[in-house]
Amino acid sequence: METSIGRGKKARRAYGIDEIALVPGQRTLDPSLADTRWQIGGIEREIPIIASAMDGVVDVRMAALLSQQGALGVLNLEGIQTRYKDPQPILDRIACVGKDEFVGLMQELYAEPIKPELIQQRIQEIKSLGGIAAVSATPAGASKYGSAVALAGADLFFVQATVVSTAYLSPESVKPLDLAHFCQQMPIPVILGNCVTYEVALDLMKTGAAGILVGIGPGAACTSRGVLGVGVPQATAVADCAAARDDYFQETGNYVTIIADGGLITGGDICKCIACGADGVMIGSPFARAAEAPGNGYHWGMATPSPVLPRGTRIRVGTTGTLEQILRGPALLDDGTHNLLGALKTSMGTLGAKNLKEMQQVEVVIAPSLLTEGKVYQKAQQLGMGK
Protein backbone atom coordinates (compact mmCIF):
# COMPACT_ATOMS: atom_id res chain seq x y z
CA MET A 1 0.00 0.00 0.00
CA GLU A 2 1.38 3.38 -1.00
CA THR A 3 1.23 6.47 1.19
CA SER A 4 1.45 10.06 0.02
CA ILE A 5 4.38 11.87 1.62
CA GLY A 6 3.55 15.07 -0.26
CA ARG A 7 2.00 16.28 -3.50
CA GLY A 8 3.39 14.27 -6.38
CA LYS A 9 5.40 11.82 -4.26
CA LYS A 10 4.18 8.50 -2.91
CA ALA A 11 6.07 5.96 -0.83
CA ARG A 12 5.68 2.33 0.16
CA ARG A 13 6.08 1.35 3.81
CA ALA A 14 9.13 -0.84 4.40
CA TYR A 15 10.04 -2.81 7.51
CA GLY A 16 13.26 -3.56 9.30
CA ILE A 17 14.15 -6.73 11.18
CA ASP A 18 13.50 -5.09 14.57
CA GLU A 19 9.91 -4.31 13.52
CA ILE A 20 8.74 -7.88 12.94
CA ALA A 21 8.19 -11.03 15.00
CA LEU A 22 7.73 -14.72 14.19
CA VAL A 23 4.52 -16.46 15.24
CA PRO A 24 4.49 -20.09 16.51
CA GLY A 25 2.05 -22.36 14.72
CA GLN A 26 0.20 -25.48 15.77
CA ARG A 27 3.30 -27.71 15.76
CA THR A 28 6.59 -27.65 17.68
CA LEU A 29 9.56 -30.00 17.41
CA ASP A 30 12.71 -30.87 19.28
CA PRO A 31 15.54 -28.55 18.12
CA SER A 32 17.74 -31.56 17.39
CA LEU A 33 15.34 -32.44 14.53
CA ALA A 34 15.71 -29.03 12.85
CA ASP A 35 17.69 -29.39 9.60
CA THR A 36 19.66 -26.20 8.89
CA ARG A 37 21.57 -27.47 5.85
CA TRP A 38 21.66 -25.30 2.76
CA GLN A 39 23.53 -25.02 -0.53
CA ILE A 40 25.36 -22.15 -2.18
CA GLY A 41 26.91 -22.66 -5.59
CA GLY A 42 26.49 -26.41 -5.22
CA ILE A 43 28.41 -26.45 -1.93
CA GLU A 44 26.44 -27.79 1.03
CA ARG A 45 26.95 -26.31 4.49
CA GLU A 46 25.36 -27.17 7.82
CA ILE A 47 25.18 -23.56 9.01
CA PRO A 48 23.47 -20.98 6.74
CA ILE A 49 25.81 -18.21 7.85
CA ILE A 50 28.58 -16.53 5.83
CA ALA A 51 31.24 -14.26 7.31
CA SER A 52 31.47 -10.95 5.44
CA ALA A 53 34.40 -10.15 3.18
CA MET A 54 35.76 -7.52 5.56
CA ASP A 55 39.36 -7.18 6.65
CA GLY A 56 38.53 -7.16 10.34
CA VAL A 57 36.49 -10.35 9.97
CA VAL A 58 38.09 -12.82 7.54
CA ASP A 59 41.69 -13.72 6.84
CA VAL A 60 43.15 -17.03 5.69
CA ARG A 61 43.00 -18.66 9.11
CA MET A 62 39.49 -17.43 9.84
CA ALA A 63 38.23 -18.69 6.44
CA ALA A 64 39.59 -22.15 7.21
CA LEU A 65 38.15 -22.19 10.75
CA LEU A 66 34.71 -21.14 9.51
CA SER A 67 34.78 -23.98 6.99
CA GLN A 68 35.70 -26.44 9.73
CA GLN A 69 32.75 -25.24 11.83
CA GLY A 70 30.30 -25.88 8.98
CA ALA A 71 29.90 -22.25 7.93
CA LEU A 72 31.68 -20.15 5.30
CA GLY A 73 33.97 -17.11 5.22
CA VAL A 74 34.66 -14.77 2.30
CA LEU A 75 38.07 -13.15 1.79
CA ASN A 76 38.24 -9.57 0.50
CA LEU A 77 40.53 -9.61 -2.55
CA GLU A 78 40.87 -5.82 -2.54
CA GLY A 79 41.82 -5.45 1.09
CA ILE A 80 44.78 -5.70 3.42
CA GLN A 81 45.38 -9.40 2.74
CA THR A 82 46.24 -8.82 -0.93
CA ARG A 83 48.07 -5.52 -0.55
CA TYR A 84 50.60 -6.59 2.10
CA LYS A 85 52.58 -9.81 2.31
CA ASP A 86 52.49 -9.54 6.12
CA PRO A 87 49.13 -7.98 7.06
CA GLN A 88 49.56 -8.14 10.84
CA PRO A 89 51.49 -4.86 11.36
CA ILE A 90 48.89 -3.09 9.21
CA LEU A 91 46.02 -4.52 11.23
CA ASP A 92 47.78 -3.46 14.42
CA ARG A 93 48.05 0.13 13.13
CA ILE A 94 44.33 0.18 12.31
CA ALA A 95 43.47 -1.01 15.83
CA CYS A 96 45.70 1.57 17.52
CA VAL A 97 44.93 4.77 15.59
CA GLY A 98 42.69 7.42 17.17
CA LYS A 99 39.22 8.02 15.76
CA ASP A 100 40.12 11.44 14.37
CA GLU A 101 43.05 10.06 12.38
CA PHE A 102 41.31 6.86 11.30
CA VAL A 103 39.95 7.84 7.88
CA GLY A 104 43.25 9.33 6.74
CA LEU A 105 45.18 6.27 7.85
CA MET A 106 42.79 3.93 6.04
CA GLN A 107 43.07 5.91 2.83
CA GLU A 108 46.85 5.74 3.14
CA LEU A 109 47.00 2.01 3.88
CA TYR A 110 44.57 1.03 1.12
CA ALA A 111 46.45 3.12 -1.45
CA GLU A 112 49.06 0.33 -1.52
CA PRO A 113 48.56 -1.53 -4.82
CA ILE A 114 46.88 -4.92 -4.91
CA LYS A 115 49.39 -7.65 -5.75
CA PRO A 116 47.99 -10.36 -8.07
CA GLU A 117 50.46 -12.91 -6.73
CA LEU A 118 49.03 -12.43 -3.24
CA ILE A 119 45.53 -13.15 -4.54
CA GLN A 120 46.63 -16.56 -5.73
CA GLN A 121 48.72 -17.13 -2.60
CA ARG A 122 45.85 -16.40 -0.21
CA ILE A 123 43.45 -18.70 -2.10
CA GLN A 124 46.00 -21.49 -2.07
CA GLU A 125 46.66 -20.94 1.64
CA ILE A 126 42.96 -21.34 2.45
CA LYS A 127 42.80 -24.52 0.37
CA SER A 128 45.95 -25.91 2.00
CA LEU A 129 44.26 -25.55 5.41
CA GLY A 130 41.25 -27.52 4.17
CA GLY A 131 38.99 -24.47 3.86
CA ILE A 132 36.47 -23.45 1.22
CA ALA A 133 38.06 -20.63 -0.77
CA ALA A 134 35.30 -18.06 -1.20
CA VAL A 135 36.55 -14.65 -2.31
CA SER A 136 35.09 -11.23 -3.06
CA ALA A 137 35.87 -8.30 -5.35
CA THR A 138 34.13 -5.25 -6.77
CA PRO A 139 32.94 -5.46 -10.39
CA ALA A 140 36.12 -3.63 -11.47
CA GLY A 141 38.24 -6.01 -9.42
CA ALA A 142 36.39 -9.02 -10.80
CA SER A 143 37.10 -7.87 -14.34
CA LYS A 144 40.77 -7.41 -13.53
CA TYR A 145 41.45 -10.47 -11.35
CA GLY A 146 38.77 -13.00 -12.33
CA SER A 147 41.09 -15.18 -14.36
CA ALA A 148 43.69 -15.25 -11.56
CA VAL A 149 40.99 -16.27 -9.07
CA ALA A 150 39.85 -19.14 -11.28
CA LEU A 151 43.42 -20.25 -11.93
CA ALA A 152 44.18 -20.32 -8.21
CA GLY A 153 41.31 -22.76 -7.63
CA ALA A 154 38.83 -20.63 -5.70
CA ASP A 155 35.49 -22.29 -4.95
CA LEU A 156 33.14 -19.28 -5.00
CA PHE A 157 33.42 -15.73 -6.34
CA PHE A 158 31.37 -12.92 -4.78
CA VAL A 159 31.09 -9.81 -6.96
CA GLN A 160 30.05 -7.04 -4.58
CA ALA A 161 29.41 -3.31 -4.57
CA THR A 162 27.10 -0.98 -2.65
CA VAL A 163 24.62 -1.49 -5.50
CA VAL A 164 25.04 -3.86 -8.47
CA SER A 165 22.75 -3.83 -11.50
CA THR A 166 22.74 -5.20 -15.03
CA ALA A 167 21.93 -1.75 -16.47
CA TYR A 168 25.09 0.17 -15.63
CA LEU A 169 25.78 3.39 -17.54
CA SER A 170 29.42 4.45 -17.77
CA PRO A 171 31.55 6.99 -19.65
CA GLU A 172 32.69 5.93 -23.12
CA SER A 173 36.23 5.54 -21.79
CA VAL A 174 35.13 2.92 -19.22
CA LYS A 175 34.08 -0.59 -20.17
CA PRO A 176 31.77 -1.93 -17.43
CA LEU A 177 31.80 -5.56 -16.37
CA ASP A 178 29.28 -7.60 -18.36
CA LEU A 179 27.79 -9.59 -15.50
CA ALA A 180 26.11 -12.22 -17.69
CA HIS A 181 29.28 -12.82 -19.70
CA PHE A 182 31.35 -12.98 -16.48
CA CYS A 183 29.02 -15.54 -14.88
CA GLN A 184 29.08 -17.66 -18.03
CA GLN A 185 32.85 -17.53 -18.47
CA MET A 186 33.88 -18.16 -14.88
CA PRO A 187 34.45 -21.87 -14.15
CA ILE A 188 33.22 -21.38 -10.57
CA PRO A 189 29.86 -20.18 -9.19
CA VAL A 190 29.42 -16.40 -9.01
CA ILE A 191 27.34 -14.62 -6.37
CA LEU A 192 26.23 -11.06 -7.18
CA GLY A 193 25.23 -8.15 -4.95
CA ASN A 194 24.08 -6.04 -3.50
CA CYS A 195 20.45 -5.28 -4.31
CA VAL A 196 17.18 -4.63 -2.46
CA THR A 197 14.36 -4.85 -5.01
CA TYR A 198 12.39 -7.55 -6.80
CA GLU A 199 13.20 -6.21 -10.27
CA VAL A 200 16.96 -5.94 -9.81
CA ALA A 201 17.17 -9.32 -8.08
CA LEU A 202 15.33 -10.89 -11.01
CA ASP A 203 17.66 -9.21 -13.51
CA LEU A 204 20.71 -10.47 -11.62
CA MET A 205 19.31 -14.01 -11.55
CA LYS A 206 18.98 -13.93 -15.33
CA THR A 207 22.74 -13.35 -15.65
CA GLY A 208 23.41 -16.85 -14.35
CA ALA A 209 24.34 -15.91 -10.80
CA ALA A 210 24.36 -18.74 -8.26
CA GLY A 211 23.30 -16.41 -5.46
CA ILE A 212 22.15 -12.86 -4.76
CA LEU A 213 23.22 -10.68 -1.83
CA VAL A 214 20.45 -8.53 -0.39
CA GLY A 215 21.08 -5.42 1.67
CA ILE A 216 22.21 -1.84 1.22
CA GLY A 217 23.60 0.01 4.20
CA PRO A 218 22.37 -1.96 7.25
CA GLY A 219 25.83 -3.15 8.32
CA ALA A 220 27.08 -2.14 11.76
CA ALA A 221 30.08 -0.25 10.37
CA CYS A 222 28.45 0.99 7.15
CA THR A 223 27.52 4.65 6.72
CA SER A 224 26.07 4.45 3.18
CA ARG A 225 22.55 5.22 4.39
CA GLY A 226 23.80 8.42 6.00
CA VAL A 227 26.19 9.40 3.21
CA LEU A 228 23.97 8.50 0.26
CA GLY A 229 20.47 8.29 1.74
CA VAL A 230 20.05 4.96 -0.04
CA GLY A 231 18.65 1.68 1.29
CA VAL A 232 15.60 -0.44 2.06
CA PRO A 233 15.06 -1.98 5.52
CA GLN A 234 16.08 -5.63 5.52
CA ALA A 235 12.78 -7.40 6.24
CA THR A 236 11.14 -5.81 3.20
CA ALA A 237 14.23 -6.09 0.98
CA VAL A 238 14.67 -9.80 1.72
CA ALA A 239 10.98 -10.58 1.20
CA ASP A 240 10.92 -8.77 -2.14
CA CYS A 241 14.08 -10.46 -3.44
CA ALA A 242 12.93 -13.87 -2.17
CA ALA A 243 9.73 -13.39 -4.18
CA ALA A 244 11.87 -12.83 -7.27
CA ARG A 245 13.75 -16.07 -6.52
CA ASP A 246 10.51 -18.03 -6.21
CA ASP A 247 9.08 -16.58 -9.44
CA TYR A 248 12.34 -17.23 -11.28
CA PHE A 249 12.43 -20.82 -10.02
CA GLN A 250 8.84 -21.41 -11.09
CA GLU A 251 9.63 -20.04 -14.53
CA THR A 252 13.01 -21.70 -15.15
CA GLY A 253 13.48 -24.50 -12.60
CA ASN A 254 16.72 -22.79 -11.52
CA TYR A 255 16.91 -22.01 -7.80
CA VAL A 256 19.09 -18.98 -6.98
CA THR A 257 20.17 -18.60 -3.36
CA ILE A 258 19.12 -15.43 -1.53
CA ILE A 259 21.55 -14.17 1.13
CA ALA A 260 20.53 -11.44 3.57
CA ASP A 261 23.66 -9.31 3.93
CA GLY A 262 24.13 -6.89 6.81
CA GLY A 263 22.44 -5.52 9.89
CA LEU A 264 22.17 -8.85 11.70
CA ILE A 265 23.59 -9.11 15.20
CA THR A 266 21.72 -11.83 17.10
CA GLY A 267 20.39 -15.30 16.49
CA GLY A 268 16.91 -13.81 16.44
CA ASP A 269 17.90 -11.46 13.60
CA ILE A 270 19.09 -14.45 11.57
CA CYS A 271 15.89 -16.39 12.26
CA LYS A 272 13.73 -13.46 11.15
CA CYS A 273 15.69 -12.98 7.91
CA ILE A 274 15.19 -16.63 6.98
CA ALA A 275 11.50 -16.35 7.85
CA CYS A 276 11.32 -13.41 5.42
CA GLY A 277 12.63 -15.71 2.68
CA ALA A 278 16.43 -15.74 2.88
CA ASP A 279 18.26 -19.04 2.32
CA GLY A 280 21.23 -17.85 4.31
CA VAL A 281 22.75 -14.73 5.85
CA MET A 282 26.02 -12.81 5.68
CA ILE A 283 27.21 -11.18 8.91
CA GLY A 284 30.30 -9.22 9.90
CA SER A 285 30.36 -7.65 13.36
CA PRO A 286 29.29 -10.84 15.25
CA PHE A 287 32.33 -12.63 13.82
CA ALA A 288 34.60 -9.62 14.36
CA ARG A 289 34.07 -10.31 18.08
CA ALA A 290 35.69 -13.75 17.82
CA ALA A 291 39.08 -14.27 19.45
CA GLU A 292 40.38 -15.58 16.11
CA ALA A 293 39.20 -12.58 14.05
CA PRO A 294 41.98 -10.48 12.48
CA GLY A 295 40.53 -7.10 13.51
CA ASN A 296 41.77 -7.12 17.13
CA GLY A 297 38.28 -6.35 18.44
CA TYR A 298 37.54 -3.76 15.74
CA HIS A 299 35.30 -3.87 12.68
CA TRP A 300 35.17 -1.59 9.64
CA GLY A 301 33.21 -1.44 6.40
CA MET A 302 34.48 -2.33 2.94
CA ALA A 303 33.93 1.22 1.61
CA THR A 304 35.67 2.85 4.58
CA PRO A 305 39.00 3.46 2.75
CA SER A 306 37.44 5.15 -0.31
CA PRO A 307 39.84 7.93 -1.41
CA VAL A 308 36.98 10.26 -2.42
CA LEU A 309 33.84 9.33 -0.42
CA PRO A 310 34.31 6.99 2.58
CA ARG A 311 31.09 5.16 3.43
CA GLY A 312 32.05 3.27 6.52
CA THR A 313 33.65 3.69 9.89
CA ARG A 314 35.59 1.68 12.46
CA ILE A 315 33.63 0.44 15.44
CA ARG A 316 34.93 -1.29 18.53
CA VAL A 317 33.11 -4.58 19.02
CA GLY A 318 35.48 -6.14 21.53
CA THR A 319 36.27 -9.83 21.86
CA THR A 320 33.56 -11.91 23.52
CA GLY A 321 34.49 -15.52 22.84
CA THR A 322 35.90 -18.02 20.39
CA LEU A 323 34.52 -18.60 16.93
CA GLU A 324 33.11 -21.93 18.10
CA GLN A 325 31.29 -20.28 21.01
CA ILE A 326 29.79 -17.67 18.68
CA LEU A 327 28.68 -20.24 16.11
CA ARG A 328 27.93 -23.37 18.13
CA GLY A 329 28.19 -22.44 21.80
CA PRO A 330 28.11 -22.98 24.62
CA ALA A 331 27.05 -19.35 24.95
CA LEU A 332 28.85 -17.14 27.43
CA LEU A 333 26.43 -14.24 26.85
CA ASP A 334 22.66 -13.98 27.22
CA ASP A 335 22.01 -11.37 24.52
CA GLY A 336 21.72 -13.68 21.50
CA THR A 337 25.19 -13.07 20.08
CA HIS A 338 26.59 -16.51 21.00
CA ASN A 339 25.56 -19.98 19.75
CA LEU A 340 23.90 -18.67 16.59
CA LEU A 341 23.30 -22.20 15.29
CA GLY A 342 21.65 -23.18 18.57
CA ALA A 343 19.41 -20.12 18.37
CA LEU A 344 18.35 -20.99 14.83
CA LYS A 345 17.60 -24.62 15.72
CA THR A 346 15.69 -23.63 18.86
CA SER A 347 13.66 -21.04 16.97
CA MET A 348 12.86 -23.58 14.25
CA GLY A 349 11.77 -26.04 16.94
CA THR A 350 9.54 -23.43 18.59
CA LEU A 351 8.00 -22.57 15.23
CA GLY A 352 7.65 -26.20 14.12
CA ALA A 353 9.92 -25.76 11.08
CA LYS A 354 11.77 -28.97 10.17
CA ASN A 355 14.01 -27.30 7.59
CA LEU A 356 14.86 -23.88 6.17
CA LYS A 357 12.19 -24.10 3.49
CA GLU A 358 9.55 -24.55 6.19
CA MET A 359 11.16 -21.75 8.19
CA GLN A 360 10.60 -19.45 5.20
CA GLN A 361 6.87 -20.17 5.44
CA VAL A 362 6.25 -19.28 9.10
CA GLU A 363 3.86 -16.47 9.99
CA VAL A 364 5.34 -13.01 10.43
CA VAL A 365 3.65 -10.08 12.22
CA ILE A 366 4.47 -6.39 12.44
CA ALA A 367 5.70 -5.93 16.01
CA PRO A 368 7.56 -2.65 16.69
CA SER A 369 7.38 -3.34 20.44
CA LEU A 370 8.95 -6.80 20.19
CA LEU A 371 12.33 -5.82 21.61
CA THR A 372 11.10 -3.31 24.21
CA GLU A 373 7.87 -4.77 25.61
CA GLY A 374 8.38 -5.68 29.26
CA LYS A 375 12.15 -5.03 29.10
CA VAL A 376 12.30 -1.92 31.30
CA TYR A 377 14.67 -3.46 33.84
CA GLN A 378 16.98 -4.95 31.22
CA LYS A 379 17.24 -1.58 29.50
CA ALA A 380 17.74 0.36 32.72
CA GLN A 381 20.42 -2.04 33.95
CA GLN A 382 21.91 -2.68 30.47
CA LEU A 383 21.47 -6.42 30.77
CA GLY A 384 20.43 -9.06 28.21
CA MET A 385 18.38 -7.36 25.49
CA GLY A 386 19.01 -3.95 27.09
CA LYS A 387 22.74 -3.86 26.35
Question: What characteristics describe this protein?
Answer:
single chain; alpha/beta; two-stranded antiparallel ribbon; 16 helices
Describe this structure in words.
This protein is of the alpha/beta class and 387 residues long. It has helices spanning 60-68, 80-83, 88-96, 102-109, 116-128, 139-152, 179-185, 198-205, 224-228, 234-252, 267-275, 285-288, 323-327, 340-351, 356-359, 376-381, and strands spanning 2-6, 9-12, 20-23, 38-40, 43-45, 49-51, 72-76, 134-137, 156-160, 190-195, 211-214, 257-261, 280-283, 298-300, 314-316, 363-366. The strands form 5 sheets. The chain has an 8-stranded parallel beta barrel with strand order 6-7-8-9-10-11-12-13, surrounded by 5 helices. It has a two-stranded antiparallel sheet with strand order 1-2.
Strand order of the largest sheet: 6-7-8-9-10-11-12-13
Strand composition percent = 15-25%
Distance between the termini: 35 Å
Taking the sheet with the most strands, its summary is: 8 strands, parallel, barrel
User: How much is the radius of gyration in Å?
Assistant: 20 Å
Helices, by number, come to 16
Based on DSSP secondary structure assignment, what is the total number of beta strands? 16
Class inferred from helices and paired strands: alpha/beta
Summarize it.
With 387 residues, the chain is an alpha/beta fold. It has 16 helices and 16 strands. The longest helix has 19 residues.
Record the SSE blueprint.
Blueprint lengths: L1 E5 L2 E4 L7 E4 L14 E3 L2 E3 L3 E3 L8 H9 L3 E5 L3 H4 L4 H9 L5 H8 L6 H13 L5 E4 L1 H14 L3 E5 L18 H7 L4 E6 L2 H8 L5 E4 L9 H5 L5 H19 L4 E5 L5 H9 L4 E4 L1 H4 L9 E3 L13 E3 L6 H5 L12 H12 L4 H4 L3 E4 L9 H6 L6
Parallel strand pairs: 6-7, 6-13, 7-8, 8-9, 9-10, 10-11, 11-12, 12-13
Antiparallel strand pairs: 1-2, 3-16, 4-5, 14-15
Helix pairs in contact: 1-5, 5-6, 8-10, 11-14
